[in-house]
Amino acid sequence: MSLTAVGSLAFDSVSTPFGERERMLGGSAVHFALAANFFTEVKIVSSVGEDFGEAEIDVLTSRGIDTTDVERVEGGETFFWRGSYEYDMNLATTEETRLNVLESFVPKLTDGSRGSETLFLGNIQPHLQRQVRAECEQSNFAGLDSMNIWIENERETLIEAIGEVDCLLLNDAEIRQLTGEANLTRAARAVLEMGPKIVIAKQGEYGAALFTEEFFFAMPGFPLEDVMDPTGAGDSFAGGFLGYVDKHRDELDEHTLRRGMAYGSVLASFNVEEFGTERVARLTEDEIEQRLREFRQITHFEI
Ligand code: AMP
User: Fold this and answer.
1) How far is CA 247 from CA 14, 102, 270, in A?
2) Of residues 89, 80, 82, 178, the one with CA closest to residue 126
3) CATH number belonging to domain 3-299
4) Closest residue (by CA) to atom 6 of ligand 1?
5) Whose C-alpha in 112, 163, 172, 225 is 20 to 30 A from the C-alpha of 139?
6) Ligand 1: which atom is nearest the Cα of residue 26?
7) Is this prediction's pTM over 0.90?
8) What is the pLDDT, as a whole number, of residue 120?
9) Which is it for strands 42-49 and 66-73: parallel, antiparallel or unpaired?
10) Whose CA is nearest to atom 10 of ligand 1?
């Protein structure tokens, strides 16, 4: 059991109504890996510049995350994202995106990451997601995340990439944007027709919903009183979900997918409690299991 993830390793400058941070460690692959690592062995495929130092790599490697396939470009600069949130923290406003080393990135996978059974194609240019999907021939469960700028600027390639995976994870607004369907259930059906067997609509503080041809399942958001920074919540959710799925690959049924949704929700809820990776980087398994039980209690009812 192991999980390969391609995505951005980033410096993020973020402002929310509760504070701001300059150039903190971020990126889709970082948030994903820190969450998935609680369940399975994670290997990251990405590229960074010279400005990505020992301290940043240490956050990953000290948790046992494999960074062998993170290429370091001499003289290059790491991907940079600047975003802000208003009081409705479900809406991120992108103020600046500098692809930097990701602009010319060609993924080079060693046998280790090529051999994983499970794959996460995190938010990055869709043509890179397709390249990694094609290289990982042994992987038989792949999830894909993306965002509005790729839906707008690389729509055709993104739809091809979606057709090559088993599970699409997107924000509800992005699923509507991708399909042109205002109704989320219809929009999810339209995505199922593109190829994936599973569609997960991430709904920010309202939780997440899973659609397949056979069943529907939804988790609410955890009722948190202090939400500092939602950046990376979607990737933490994906890490919890796919990490759990990878750990239970020999029993990949409806129950496993439902529990995966629960773990995804738990990891996302911790991620938003502090800025960037601060909270998840020091999270413990006991805290995860405790919140899972609380989630179970708040979603339980008798008839
Ligand atoms: P999310 O889970 O959607 O909040 O993802 C936030 C992370 O995505 C941030 O840490 C950013 O560095 C990263 N990100 C933002 N825009 C892009 C982009 N265009 N490509 C790749 N990663 C991005």
Assistant:
1) 33, 30, 21
2) 178
3) 3.40.1190.20
4) 232
5) 172
6) 10
7) yes
8) 98
9) parallel
10) 27
